[in-house]
Amino acid sequence: MLLDDVLAARLQMAISLGFHIIFAAVGIGLPVLVVVAEWLWLRTRNAVYLTLAKRWSKGMAILFAVGAVSGTVLSFELGLLFPKFMEHAGPVIGMPFSLEGFAFFTEAIFLGIYLYGWDKISPKAHIFSGILVAISGMLSGVFVVIANAWMNSPTGFEVVDGQFINIDPIKAMLNPMAFTHCLHMTLAAYAATGFLVAGIHAYMLLRNKNNIFHRKALGIALAVGGTTSLLMPISGDLSAKAVAKHQPIKLAAMEAQFTTVKSAPLRIGGIVDEEKEEIRYSIEIPYLLSFLAYGDPNAEVKGLNEFSKENRPPVGIVRYSFQIMVLLGIAMMLTSIWAGILFWKNWKLPDNRWFLRTLVILAPAGIIAIEAGWIVTEVGRQPWIIYGVMKTAEAVTPMPHLVVPFLLFCILYVFLLMVVLWLIYKEVSNSPNTEERELKGGEVVNVT
Question: Which of 74, 218, 324, 445 is deepest in the core (most CB within 10 A)?
Answer without folding.
Answer: 218
